[in-house]
Design a protein that fits this description.
Blueprint (H helix, E strand, L loop, with lengths): L9 H4 L18 H11 L2 E4 L2 E4 L2 H9 L3 E2 L3 H8 L3 H6 L10 H12 L2 H20 L6 E3 H6 L1 H10 L10 H10 L7 H27 L8 H7 L9 H32 L1 H9 L4 H11 L5 E6 L3 E3 L2 E3 L4 E5 H4 L34 H18 L2 E4 L4 E2 L8 E3 L1 E5 L1
Parallel strand pairs: 2-8
Antiparallel strand pairs: 1-2, 3-5, 4-12, 5-8, 6-7, 9-12, 10-11
Helix pairs in contact: 7-9, 7-17, 9-13, 10-11, 10-13, 11-13, 13-17, 15-17
Length: about 400
């Protein structure tokens, strides 16, 4: 397969199908935003094989708000994923479904992740963060993603599903393998790993679900019990739907929070003046987290398929058109954000699209915000010196933006 074009002609022939994630286009992993900037300026509604890539903030918002933009991926994923366990998962989970399934599942999740539930969770998250930081030795290099950023969401979601703590070891690996199938052009090995991860996860969940049916938990704090029992007076989930919403909950919570915390730490290392400002003005932390989400969003792409014609400016998109929404590009659009390439922890307003918009906005967005706030509050309180501890290694995926390795040295 030919390599994709370099920056010199990206606006004329950019197409995800040519991406080799082992050796992506020169500079893309470190700075995809220069590619997106050229597309936004020269080809903002960029035709690609089988669809259109949108890079302007206003266009992305218009599609999010368009009532006839479908999230259902049954047709698209049949070609992309085949017909195995990975296909079954991604066409059954909440995020890639329209009503009626979406309308039955979302209240089960949002009801368990409301503000009262998040307040109840915060004490446990604070204790978890404190314990993880106790394990970080002063002055020694720590691999921050594995030792800290990735452990927080796995434990939080494990608690929500009441998974025994001794059985949580495989969860992160399963999640990464399953989500890698969502890349624009996953290869055969990626799909095989994803299929295997779904199968293993389903087997794991069967015993867990059987046990919870025999001994239900508190539906206000145990999401699995809530999934099993359904909403009062409402239709219950089928077994298949139930299992795949559990997998979805882990995947969504793990990827967003791990990347938010990892990207946020890297940004503060790269912008020491922002780190200093957060130390001096701790009241800015919530704005700072929103800026981390805008500037280096954990999820860079989303997709829709038009069910009716949609006009965007001078461009008319016909029914059936697959749309790729470039969240990363929209969040750097100067028409929406003054000085968009400046990392500003005091930025306000900051109406970024890191969590999407509309009926499919991330159901766990406020859990991710809380986890990041607790994590950075304790990091800032405990360590006075943050320094790079070696060369970071970026995750080569393009839909998800984060690090595989981020070595850091902290001192009290």
């Amino acid at each position: 397969m030919p390599r994709p074009p370099r920056r010199t002609d990206v606006s004329s022939s950019f197409d995800w199908r040519g991406f080799d994630l082992v050796d992506p286009p020169s500079g893309f992993l470190d700075d995809p935003y220069s590619f997106y900037r050229e597309l936004r300026e020269k080809s903002p509604r960029h035709p690609m094989a089988g669809g259109v890539l949108l890079t302007r903030y206003a266009d992305v918002v218009a599609v999010y708000r368009f009532a006839h933009a479908s999230s259902d991926k049954t047709l698209e994923f049949r070609t992309k994923l085949g017909s195995g366990p990975l296909y079954e998962h991604h066409t059954t989970s909440l995020v890639f479904n329209d009503p009626p399934l979406h309308g039955r599942v979302r209240p089960l999740i949002t009801g368990a992740l409301n503000q009262a539930a998040i307040r109840r969770m915060e004490g446990d998250v604070s204790a978890l963060v404190s314990g993880l930081l106790d394990e970080i030795a002063e002055g020694r290099v720590v691999e921050f993603i594995t030792a800290f950023a990735a452990r927080i969401p796995v434990e939080v979601i494990g608690n929500l599903l009441a998974i025994p703590s001794t059985e949580r070891g495989p969860l992160r690996g399963w999640s990464t393998a399953i989500l890698s199938g969502l890349e624009p052009a996953p290869g055969p090995q990626t799909l095989q790993r994803g299929d295997r991860a779904v199968s293993e996860f389903l087997h794991f969940l069967k015993d867990l679900v059987d046990e919870r049916r025999r001994w239900p938990g508190n539906r206000h704090t145990d999401v699995l019990t809530r999934f099993i029992q359904g909403e009062a007076g409402g239709e219950r989930l089928t077994d298949k739907e139930l299992y795949h919403q559990c997998i979805f909950l882990l995947n969504a919570g793990h990827e967003t929070t791990t990347n938010l915390i990892g990207n946020g730490l890297w940004l503060l290392l790269e912008h020491p003046e922002s780190l200093r400002r957060l130390r001096e003005e701790p009241g800015l932390l919530e704005r700072g987290i929103e800026e981390m989400l805008r500037f280096e969003g954990p999820i860079q792409l989303n997709n829709r398929r038009l069910l009716m014609t949609l006009r965007l400016g001078e461009t008319q998109l016909s029914a059936g058109t697959p749309i790729t929404l470039s969240i990363g590009a929209a969040n750097r659009d100067p028409a929406q954000f003054p000085a968009p390439d400046r990392f500003d922890v005091s930025r306000s307003p900051n109406r970024h699209l890191a969590f999407g918009q509309g009926v499919h906005a991330c159901a766990g967005m406020n859990v991710a915000r809380m986890e990041a706030r607790v994590a950075f509050t304790e990091l800032l309180r405990r360590f006075s010196v943050w320094e790079p501890g070696g060369e970071p290694v970026r995750d080569p995926r393009v839909r998800f933006r984060g690090f595989l390795k981020l070595p850091v040295r902290f001192e009290y």
